[in-house]
Structure formats: structure tokens, C-alpha cells
Design brief:
The protein has 14 helices and 15 strands. With about 425 residues, the chain is an alpha/beta fold. It has two domains: about 130 residues, Alpha-Beta Complex (Aspartate Aminotransferase, domain 1), CATH 3.90.1150.10; about 260 residues, Type I PLP-dependent aspartate aminotransferase-like (Major domain) (Aspartate Aminotransferase, domain 2), CATH 3.40.640. The strands form three sheets. Strands 4-10-9-8-7-5-6 form a seven-stranded mixed sheet, sandwiched between helices. The chain has a four-stranded mixed sheet with strand order 1-2-3-13. Helix 12 packs parallel to helix 14 and helix 13 packs across helix 14.
Length: about 425
């Protein structure tokens, strides 16, 4: 650690030397049940044999074909596979390496395509750490501290976080839609607004699913105001929530779709999808990058899509997710003074604790001592998030919840 930046904050004390499915093995040979998945990245588990073989084969033929210089077969094949995997009208893709890059690309695309400047984001969203995406990120003040002023033209509307407000879902949705209408009446006119950008489940902001009615309300307003609806599925996409795309639960269309994380089982790859007629309205040369669409990463993505389809991982995420939420709800009943809320979609679940950040950190450390790796999120550092690989089994979920139970018993009481 001595030669790494001291600004890096390690969530665990594990030095991983090997990964197998839902497990990480450290340098002392200890096995950890990994319910972090590299923050939702290793969707097919660690070192899935089909992904490993695809990567080995590709690395032996072409490692990097810079995609604004030459095309390579994997890039073409992946764009075709994504067209088949994304809802209409998405049929055109730009590739990059990280989520924040494609968020930035979405802002550029929206501004160019509409000729408007302003962006509406939602409270608690996390969209990245680069200047433009950070301007839309409000999940935690630490990300923005010391960096103001950020990009102008960003307006933040309330997010329907019912547990935080202390209301039921219907009341929360109605309030947030009214406040959105008020924002458009008082801060940014529709005629100068390019897009609304939202995560269908808050990630860093606390793992809070967006109610279907709220997404439907956004779609209605986007249609009425001729504003693009940008759905940031960086963390929710590729089956994580029990649907291939989380916004499918609300039965709405996205005008622009952002994806990364689970796309390539751990290789750096991200993509921006939009209808070709929207993409074509951006200025030539406004998209590009050195490493986007890397040949090895594309091979990993194609193999990942094969595994997701052939092994039924979207359905597995839905079934295992219900089991996970039921088990966590049972824990809530056992620890009513410690667990305030249980929520989630598929294998993107959260337990919001009533303890302060220090106590929650101690609980997660106790879980690590039990051989279970978990991560914390939320503005107050009190939300434990559950992100197992999509290949997780019922037995592994039971095992993880049992280990967490022991950690709660050791620290929380």
C-alpha cells in the first residue's frame, strides 16, 4: 500500500489473488463469499470459463484495434448483439472504457441533438467523477467537495426515496413529480432543457429503486416537453435487477441508454446507445477515445452475453433476488432496531441500518471476518448493499445472510 495514493480508501483488508465464481481467495488461501462483484462488474462470477477462453483466444489474435482508426470483428459483432438486447428504439452504439465517459457522451449527445443546454438530474444519483458527470452526481458531498464550481446548466430534482421522506410510495411519487413540474416552471424551461438523466435504481445514493409510476411520469413529461430521457443503467443493466434492463419494469422507452459494469465480466468497457436518428444529430468527431471498444474487452462482452443468455442468468437474478430480499426481511424482523429498511430489485438489494456510519463500518468488517465481503453506500454511509454475481445459488445466499446475521449479532447489539 505504501506506493499507492493515500487518497484511495479500501473497503476491505483483502488482497485477492484468485477468483472462482462467487468467491475470492486471498494471499493466505482464505475464501471469501464475494457479494460486491467489483461493484456490480463480475456479473458472470469471477473467471467464468467461457469468458476466460474468449479472452485468451482474442488476446492471441488482436489485443487492440483502435476503433476510429480500424474496425475489428468483435466491435461489429458486439454492436449487433447489443441492438438485439436493447429495447426499441435503441439501435446505434458508441463504446468507451468507463461509465463516466459514456455519461459525458450522453450529455454531449443530448445538447447537440436538441440544441439546448440544460440537464435535469435527480437527488442522490451517481453518474461518475469527471467534471460533467460529477455535476450531476449528488449521492454524497465527498465526491463534489473542494471542486466547485462544476459544469453549469445542471438542475437537481427530488428523487422518490419513500423511506427517507417517511411517506408511502404513491405520496412520494406524487410529491416528486409536482416538484419536477415546479422546477421546470421556475428554474429551467423545457425549451432550454436537453435531457433528464436518471438511474432506475440509485447506486451510490442508497440502492433505492425508482417506482414505476415515477419513471412513467418522466416519460410522459419527456414526450410532452420534447426532452430526451436518458436512463443510466451503468449498475443496473445486463440482468442485475431481474430484468435485462431495469427500466423495463416500468414499460417505458429510453431515448438514450447508458451501460457499463456488468457488460464484460470485469474488463473495462462501456457503451452509449441511442436511436440512429438521434445519434446522427450530434456533431461529427464529438465521440471517440483511445481504448473504447477494445478488442479483448469486446470478446469478453460477447462471451458475457452468451453466458447470460445460455445460463438463464436474468431469470436467476430475479428468483435469487426474491430469496435474498425475503431473507433480509426476516433479518429485519429479528433486528428491528438495527435494520430500518430492506429494498431492492433482483440481485441489487440493500439493508438500510439505523446505526451511524462508524457502527455500520464495524458490522461490515465483522462480516469480512466471517468470510463475507459487502459494501456500504448512501449519503450517511449506513446502507449495506448486496451485489452478488448473477450466478449465485440459493445455498450461497443463505450462507451470506447467515454470516451477516453473525456479524450483526457481534456488533449491532
Amino acid at each position: 500500500m505504501a506506493n499507492l495514493s493515500p487518497l484511495l480508501q479500501q473497503a476491505t483488508g483483502v488482497t485477492a489473488v484468485r477468483g472462482e465464481g462467487c468467491y475470492l481467495i486471498d494471499d493466505a488461501g482464505r475464501r471469501f463469499l464475494d457479494f460486491t462483484s467489483g461493484i456490480g462488474v463480475t456479473s458472470t462470477g469471477h473467471c467464468h470459463p467461457k469468458v476466460v477462453e474468449a479472452v485468451r483466444e482474442q488476446a492471441g489474435t488482436l489485443i487492440h484495434g483502435q476503433y476510429t482508426t480500424v474496425l475489428h470483428p468483435g466491435l461489429v459483432a458486439l454492436s449487433e448483439r447489443l441492438t438485439a438486447s436493447t429495447p426499441d428504439p435503441i439501435d446505434s452504439f458508441f463504446f468507451a472504457s468507463t461509465g463516466t465517459e459514456v455519461v459525458e457522451a450522453a450529455v454531449r449527445l443530448a445538447r447537440h441533438a436538441t440544441g439546448r443546454t440544460n440537464i435535469v438530474a435527480f437527488q442522490g444519483g451517481f453518474h461518475g467523477r469527471t467534471a460533467g458527470s460529477l455535476s450531476m452526481t449528488t449521492s454524497k458531498v465527498a465526491y463534489r467537495a473542494g471542486l466547485q464550481p462544476l459544469m453549469g446548466g445542471v438542475f437537481v430534482a427530488p428523487f422518490p426515496y419513500a423511506y427517507r421522506y417517511g411517506w408511502d410510495e404513491d405520496e412520494t411519487v406524487a410529491f416528486c413529480l409536482r416538484e419536477l413540474d415546479y422546477l421546470f416552471a421556475t428554474q429551467t424551461a423545457a425549451s432550454e432543457t436537453a435531457a433528464m438523466v436518471i438511474e432506475p435504481v440509485l447506486g451510490e445514493g442508497g440502492y433505492v429503486p425508482v417506482p414505476d409510476a415515477f419513471l412513467q411520469g418522466l416519460r410522459e413529461r419527456a414526450n410532452a416537453w420534447d426532452v430526451l430521457l436518458v436512463v443510466d443503467e451503468v449498475q443496473t443493466g445486463f440482468g442485475r435487477t431481474g430484468r435485462f434492463w431495469a427500466h423495463e419494469y416500468a414499460e417505458i422507452d429510453a431515448d438514450v441508454l447508458i451501460m457499463a459494469k456488468g457488460i464484460a465480466s470485469g474488463f473495462p468497457l462501456s457503451a452509449l446507445g441511442a436511436p440512429r436518428e438521434v445519434m446522427a444529430q450530434a456533431w461529427p468527431g464529438s465521440q471517440g477515445g483511445t481504448y473504447g471498444g477494445n478488442a479483448v474487452a469486446c470478446a469478453a462482452a460477447l462471451a458475457t452475453l452468451d453466458v447470460i443468455e445460455q445460463d438463464g442468468l436474468v431469470a436467476n437474478a430475479q428468483v435469487r433476488g426474491k430469496e435474498l430480499l425475503a431473507a433480509l426481511q426476516a433479518l429485519k424482523e429479528r433486528y428491528p432496531d438495527v435494520i430500518g429498511d430492506v429494498r431492492g430489485l433482483g440481485l441489487m438489494a440493500a439493508t438500510e441500518l439505523t446505526a451511524d456510519a462508524a457502527r455500520v463500518k464495524a458490522i461490515v468488517a465483522a462480516a469480512e471476518a466471517e468470510g463475507l465481503l459487502l459494501l456500504v453506500c448512501g449519503p450517511h454511509g449506513n446502507v449495506v448493499r448486496w451485489i452478488p454475481p448473477l450466478v449465485v445459488t440459493s445455498a450461497q445466499i443463505d450462507d451470506a445472510v447467515t454470516r451477516f446475521d453473525r456479524a450483526l449479532s457481534a456488533v449491532a447489539r
